[in-house]
Amino acid sequence: MANKHTIVLMQTSQNRSTRTFMDYGSITQAMDGICGLYERKLKELNPATRNITYDIADLYNFIDGLTDLSALIYDHTIQAYLPYDRQWIKHRVFQHLKKLAN
């Protein structure tokens, strides 16, 4: 399931103009992209801090703080995109980071 085209749909606030999407070649790249969004936000909030660390709870709080977050993943067998919710994304991000840590 890792090399499936993935579109991440995100809305950062109640303002509809904050709706956006990010396009990735795989689920792994999408999970990297979501982590990267959080890391950029941390750098923006802490510009003087050189090394910023965070744990999974911090990342989950970031994800839960978004007004909306979901993913559309292309399934070749049905030739269509299947939707996945915030909880699925949190699970996949955790699995992704766990794999990177090993």
UniProtKB/TrEMBL annotation:
Domain of life: Eukaryota
A Pfam entry, by short name: ER
Keyword Cell cycle appears in the UniProt entry: yes
Keywords: Cell cycle
InterPro entries per record: EHR_sf, ERH
UniProt KW Repressor keyword: no
UniProt-listed Gene3D superfamilies: Enhancer of rudimentary
PANTHER family named in the record: ENHANCER OF RUDIMENTARY ERH (PTHR12373), ENHANCER OF RUDIMENTARY HOMOLOG (PTHR12373:SF0)
Family note: Belongs to the E(R) family.
Function comment: May have a role in the cell cycle.
Protein name, per record: Enhancer of rudimentary homolog
Native organism taxonomy: Eukaryota, Viridiplantae, Streptophyta, Embryophyta, Tracheophyta
